[in-house]
Design goal:
2 copies of one chain form a homodimer. With 325 residues, chain A is of the alpha/beta class. Chain A is built from 9 helices and 14 strands. Chain A has helices spanning 2-14, 26-29, 73-82, 124-130, 148-151, 172-178, 193-202, 256-259, 273-289; strands at 42-47, 50-63, 89-101, 104-108, 140-142, 167-171, 209-212, 217-219, 222-226, 235-241, 244-248, 293-295, 304-310, 313-318. Chain A starts with a helix and ends in a 7-residue tail after the last strand. At the A-B interface, helix 1, strand 1, strand 2, strand 3 and helix 4 of A face helix 1, strand 1, strand 2, strand 3 and helix 4 of B.
């Protein structure tokens, strides 16, 4: 029977490759039970001539208490319950957006990089492999901002360049802030570790880092849109080809189920909460009005969809999953 | 570099296994470009001691015009637009729910089976292979109803049993209707083909088919709930282990984005539209009130989530995707 042959051949692959890449293969080790491995965390769709692949890096869970700074915990819990999310903790997923056209393969931010064994994050490289994306083929790393979960993946396990051949494009305002030690005392206490971390993560890319301006076309078809507040130089990007477009919203919102209905909420990771909230409202207004497809770094995987107005706020509408790319 | 080694090994697998199973392998054929293959269509989660795997069978597109029988096309188009779905066609996805506990591996309905080359449906067997599920290991096929997209996959390419070792459990009322030729003229014209199709699809399972009653525990932990209207014996199922439970909603709704906000809409595939609408309202009331996790045959992949009240109707809330099973 064809399927048994395929399973057997897949099991052959398992002797060579990691289980994460070949979810079907655990059947060989335990013939009586389906393996409990999750499907590989990547998803593909097209935006005009761009092939977009979102790649999951896992998640991080923290207490819900203290996550939103300017709303009572009970209100935040109610928002979580309305979205059928846990009310004791905030599960923060990480999903990285890759866009490819011709010889250009760009990635927005770099994930959490190398994490300790047992960590729930740090799965980007394995999921890239499942998607057939070799980090050595990445031509451009384009950063939205410099928080650790967005830059730590610049380094591989040896502390070298995880993206060995990439140019690194960074928002001018973000680079200026975090590379000037004089700004450390002017930063919120919880963010001061970024100064040393940025120095360390960018070190092996010397001569490869290029700052870009607030509204620059960073590479053909990809344009920066300043979105300050979450960090001083936080930036989002429009990917456009003819009439087709999408916007990578980076950290304009954390989980959209919590933040889109409550755009004035400010979270513990916001550098300047008032500015972050103003940016959030402005960007959500824009993508809702123009019905622009969006991806987001902390959106539920596969992290792509649309934004609709709802009440005094907004609502995230996941895009339909399709087996056709 | 570790990742290059893994990619190379994955490419070795590609010589043996089908591209659909190893999405990373096209890189070997075209080193400069990421492959455009979609991720395998399966997803796992747990309900108490049950391991649930939803498996995608692809989709079918038909004109939106004529899909809803008792609402103006403009209203249906507005519902589609509000959900960021196409307004010219109804894309109907198919996702099959497997549940496993101990030596029991049950599947609810069987997909579209063998389809012509180039068809957008018929991917269940390939996606089962990606998930490590061998059809020969399925112990129970449990049917919700006998429409073609739910029973055609009983047969393999040779016309034999696709699930060679399975018992087939069928709703008594459904079996009684479609196996009695006297009912043909009492069925809607568009459904009369089901009589011959049911005879053909169940033929190789002679002696393996067991009808069950309207509220039977069909196997331990899985209980039938009569949900008539879409067909005479349409049935849904509660899967329960201790406090944990979910309900497989089968065709209580077609796409939830269209049907949950408008539970009184009747679709072209409903055998008895009034009964289907009454069942729909009753089941949606129940799962919304009790916040019960649901899967559905035509829900957007991965086809699992929750139902919330919204206005005069309901809203589907996809469950959070997690890399942790």
């Amino acid at each position: 029977m064809a399927i048994n042959r395929r399973l057997a051949l897949s099991a052959t692959g398992a002797l060579l490759a990691s289980p994460a890449m070949l979810p079907g293969t655990a059947a060989q080790q335990a013939p009586a039970a389906a393996p409990a491995a999750q499907a590989p965390g990547f998803y593909r769709f097209r935006v005009g001539g761009f092939l977009v692949t979102t790649v999951h890096d896992g998640f991080f869970a923290r207490p819900l208490d203290g996550f939103v700074r300017n709303a009572p915990l009970a209100d935040v819990q109610a928002a979580a319950a309305a979205a059928f999310l846990p009310t004791d903790r905030q599960v923060i997923p990480f999903t990285i957006t890759f866009v490819q056209r011709g010889d250009t393969l760009a990635v927005f931010d770099t994930g959490n990089g190398v994490t300790p064994a047992g960590a729930t994050a740090g799965r980007m490289i394995a999921n890239m492999a499942a998607a057939g994306i070799d980090p050595a083929r990445v031509t451009h790393v384009i950063h939205s901002h410099f928080h650790g979960d967005h830059v730590n993946g610049l380094l591989n396990a040896e502390g070298g360049r995880a993206f060995s051949n990439a140019q690194v494009l960074v928002p001018e305002a973000e680079w200026a802030w975090w590379t000037n030690a004089g700004n450390e005392t002017r930063s919120p206490e919880g963010q001061r570790g970024n100064f040393a971390n940025v120095a360390r993560r960018f070190a092996p890319y010397q001569g490869r880092v290029t700052p870009f301006g607030a509204a620059a076309e960073v590479i053909p078809g990809i344009t920066a849109i300043a979105a300050p507040g979450h960090t001083p130089g936080h930036t989002i990007f429009r990917i456009a080809d003819g009439d087709a477009q999408m916007i990578f919203m980076a950290d304009v919102t954390n989980r959209p189920e919590i933040m889109m209905p409550n755009p004035s909420w400010q979270i513990v990771f916001d550098f300047d909460g008032d500015a972050a909230a103003a940016t959030r409202r402005r960007v959500l207004d824009m993508v809702a009005t123009d019905r622009i497809r969006v991806t987001g770094y902390h959106f539920p995987f596969p992290a792509n969809g649309f934004v609709a107005r709802a009440g005094n706020g907004f609502r995230f509408v996941p895009a339909d999953w399709s087996s056709a790319v």
